[in-house]
Amino acid sequence: MKRNPPCPGEELVVCRTPNGFTLIEMLVIMVLISISVALVYPSLHNLREKFDTLIEKADADKNVKKETFTRFVNDGLPYKAISSAIKP
Fold first, then answer.
1. What is the pTM of this model?
2. Rounded to whole angstroms, how far apart are CA atoms 63 and 57?
């Protein structure tokens, strides 16, 4: 087993250099990530619902415009019916 050299000036103490993260450090990082996700998720979920509502409204508006255009093409201009009704 390879030992690290002692600290300069201290013969009995062995200096250690960290080789990685400890279990506690990893747990702390996981807790911080989970807290941040818990704070951000509700706002993203509400944004998704608002987006879905906006898409539904746009689709409904598109359908109304499509029906209006179809009536216009099939029936002709609306003022024709009004002008023919006014003439005796």
1. 0.40
2. 10
